[in-house]
What we know:
By secondary structure, the chain is α/β, with parallel strands linked by helices. It is built from 13 helices and 9 strands. This is Glycosyl transferase family 1 domain-containing protein.
Amino acid sequence: MIRELVDKFTGRLLLRVFGLAGSYSYSALLSALELRYIAEGRTQAAEKLWLAQAYPHLAEIEEQWLKDKAVTLPLGLPQSTLINKESWLGQDRRILFVCPRIKSSPAYYGAIYEQFKAAFGEFPHIIAGKQPVPVSDENVAGFVTDQCFHAWLKNCRVMFYHSREPRHLHYHPIEAMAFGMPVIYMKGGMLEKLAEGDQPGACETLDEAKEKVTRALEGDLNFIKAVKLSEKSILNKFKLDHTFPQWEKNFIGKVIQL
Length: 258
């Protein structure tokens, strides 16, 4: 379908991207889809294709032909999340962890699940995320409604976010921060890249993460307050006063005006 759009659609094409795992690039993906010819002289096709990246550093590993067509259109928070701003209560003494496709993607999500269980399995926890193949674990909830997931965001004591991916960020830790939930996360990933100043929720090792999760579960109010306060520097990058000017500048000023 992408190739047909590139060949036949006469308007501007925006490849909306949120980042890939590891070092895999969109240049490689387009080449795998036999769209390499865009970079090899098909100037008309290249001119109408834009890499609409949600985060400004995603294009840094792309080949030059695609890097030149990168435009940053940042991701924002929907109204369904904003209406729940700072509604976290934390009365449910459980960790909220999100890990879909444990059995259907064992090499990736299955490994993440096993790592989480090894580090945090002794604590009360909920594992959210759609499971096409059932998982024999009473703590794995599988697919739930938005209403149910929002209730967890309001009531679970703490969220743990595992990812160290440098160019991909799942949406649920941002949702959790918007609700006002403390999020304990690993350094080296995009949350650290987005953060500013001291980040008491960030961790170098799983042992450090376990210690900080324990403090949250035990109700260390000063620590919880510090984590929540530090999250604002991340959350601010998803708010309208940050995202709208960039859309106006890059979408209207670059993509539409050309």
